Amino acid sequence: MSPVRFALDPRAVELLRDARDWRLIGRLFERPHGEWWADVANLSLGCTDIELARAAKLAGSATEGDYLEWMGPAGIVSPREAGYRKTTDPARLLAEIQAYYAAFAYQPRAEDPPDHVAVESGFLGWLCLKEAYARANENSESASVTRDAGREFTALHLACVAHGVARRLEATEGCHLVHAARALVVRVGPLCKALEGDWVPNGLAEDGCSLTCGSGPTADTELGDEIPPEFIAGLRDSELQ
C-alpha cells in the first residue's frame, strides 16, 4: 500500500521554515556544550537569513567559556527578560510566561529559566509548528488562536529581552551572539515601551517614577519605536490569563 501524500499550503511550509529558524536562534543563545555545535550546524542548513547564517558560522569557533563570560550567571549581558523589566514583579512575570507555556504544552528541555531569551525564542518556534499542524488539519480556529498568541507573547515578552540583549551585545562584533541578536530583533519588531506592571519597587516611586515608567517623555529612546497605543490596547484585551 503506497503512502498517502498531501501538499501543505504555502503558509504552512513557511511556518515550518520559521520554526527551524526560531529553534536555531534559541540554540545559539544556549550554553555551548555537548551536541550544541552539531545542532547549530544542522539547523543552519538552508537558512536564508544573512545575520542568522553568519551567527551559525561563527558559532563553529564558540567556546563555553566565552559564552559564560558574556551571558552566564555572572556575565556582562543578562539573557533573562526579568533583567530588562524595570517595574514588573518578577514572580508575576514568570507566572505569566509559564501560563503561555502551559496553554500550548510547551515543555522545553533546557537548563535555562523560563524567561531566558533562548527558551522564549524556542517557544515561538513551537508555536510555528503548532500553527502549521493546525493548518495541515484545516483547523483554522486553532491556527488563528496560535498565531495570535505568538504575536502577543512576542510583543509582551520576547521583544523586551531581545532588544535589551541586542543593545548590550553590539560591542561584541565577531561574536556569534551579536549576529543572533540582530536576527532576533528583526523578527520581534519594535519594542513596546508600556510593558511594565502595577508593581513599583520601594524607592522608585519616591523619585518620581510612575506606574508607566519607561513610557514617558524621558524614556530611553534607544529601546526602539513605540508600538501604536491601539495595538497595545488590543493585546491587553486578549492577553492570556
List the helices and strands and how they pair.
Blueprint: H1 10-28, H2 36-43, H3 50-58, H4 64-71, H5 90-103, H6 117-136, H7 140-169, H8 176-188, H9 229-237
Task: Write down how many β-strands occur, each being a DSSP E stretch of 2 or more residues.
Answer: 0
How big a fraction of the residues is strand? Answer: under 5%
CATH class: Mainly Alpha
Radius of gyration: 19 Å
List SSEs in N-to-C order: HHHHHHHHH
How is the CATH topology named?
TorD-like
**Average residue-wise pLDDT:** 83
Regions with little confidence, pLDDT below 50 for 5+ residues: 205-241
Q: State the end-to-end CA separation.
A: 47 Å
Portion of residues within helices: 40-55%
Structural class: mainly alpha
Domain count: the total is 1
Number of helices: 9
Biggest sheet architecture: none
The general outline is: globular
The fourth-level CATH homologous superfamily is: TorD-like
CATH architecture: Orthogonal Bundle
Q: What's the short version?
A:
The protein has 241 residues and is mainly α. It has helices spanning 10-28, 36-43, 50-58, 64-71, 90-103, 117-136, 140-169, 176-188, 229-237.
